[in-house]
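User: Last request for today: this protein with glutamine, please.
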Amino acid sequence: MKAAVITFPGSNRDGDVAKALKQAGAEVVHVWHGDTELPQGVDLMVLPGGFSYGDYLRTGAIAGRAHIMDATRAHAARGGYVLGICNGFQIACEAGLLPGILVRNANLKFVCKRQHLKVERNDTAFTRAYAKGQAIDVCIAHGEGNYITDAETLARLEGEGLVAFRYADAQGNVTPEANPNGSLNGIAGIYSPGLNVLGLMPHPENLIDSLVGGTDGRGLFESLVGSRKAA
Ligand SMILES: NC(=O)CC[C@H](N)C(=O)O
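Assistant: Here's the final one, the structure of the complex with glutamine:
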């Protein structure tokens, strides 16, 4: 598995996700947002967390129009894997890789805390190392993580099983109290229809070491590295 981690001006979790991928056994290359082509043989493109362009205009709005996003869309259209974490999820939505948009948290506050997620399905390249319905303990750190979309798209996401993770309590129950930002249906992450693009607000890359809080995030990277790319 060869992964390309894209760095935008203001990315701050690019090093973290590179570390998580390497720990899981991936080869990692770094790509600058102004590049127009991917290195040879890339299986996975990663849009990391952070504050690209200082979150100006709307978070992810400028980065979503960066040169590298044409190559990212082409990679996704070929069936290649794309992982957008937090600001990367916002960028993926702005770039049209995923439907919907992330807006200000319902309480208008930046939220930085531990958070459980329910793994909705484990038959994807991103989640095969988890159990279906498992509650995983990760962390969140965002001001604009409130996922919204129109009713038709929401029905399609739900109907086609494209919700990847929901905010939950420690037992995996999805409740309004467990929802930290007001996202529709407690959505914390979604897949593209081909299941090759995943965007999620929480940070699995920051829970990969028991010395610094936990290891529940490792499953996502181990799932990916153990999987084969689409032809
Ligand atoms: N940790 C992050 O990636 C933050 C995402 C974004 N800048 C926000 O605050 O919503």
